[in-house]
Known about the structure:
With 112 residues, chain A is mainly beta. Chain A has strands spanning 5-7, 10-13, 19-24, 31-37, 43-50, 53-57, 65-68, 75-79, 88-95, 102-103, 107-111.
Amino acid sequence: EPEVTQTPSHQVTQMGQEVILRCVPISNHLYFYWYRQILGQKVEFLVSFYNNEISEKSEIFDDQFSVERPDGSNFTLKIRSTKLEDSAMYFCASSEQGNEQFFGPGTRLTVL
Amino acid sequence: AQKVTQAQTEISVVEKEDVTLDCVYETRDTTYYLFWYKQPPSGELVFLIRRNSFDEQNEISGRYSWNFQKSTSSFNFTITASQVVDSAVYFCALTPWGAGYALNFGKGTSLLVTP
């Protein structure tokens, strides 16, 4: 069964460093998303992407964040200058028709 | 604005008991989607169900059933004859009708099923 994959599973970085989180959505899906979940809290929306552009973003998704679909398969989230409060689990999701979203296993980001 | 409330933070049951997880939502939209996701201890988010707002028929899938009541803005989830493997955090979520919208999640209910 096709699934969303994410790499790395765990990323440790120093405050102020740039990180890139990678996702490979399900191949025939057209809608892509990033969410984050701070430990023990609810899942929060960051950004959605369709037709090679951002379609929606939350207040969390400020200028420090960017997304890219550099080729036909990868979907990346970049955090330019990480802060301690960026430590969270980051989930990528994809959707074929824009309603049911299927999530990857997540990348745990730890900012020291 | 949309909001999802899962008032039960933690529930603990003994195996084989039935358990209902509550979800109440607020939205100004007349049409929308409702979802349930499961997050087991391993951390991934597993899609369980999507319900359209104009379809109030209850749904059953094995030991799982969902009761959608538009009049009370609730979308409750019942697990019958619970098993230890059902131990997880369960999230209810809401999106506007249409394609590509963000999931608005509740805070989740942590279910612990003990032998």
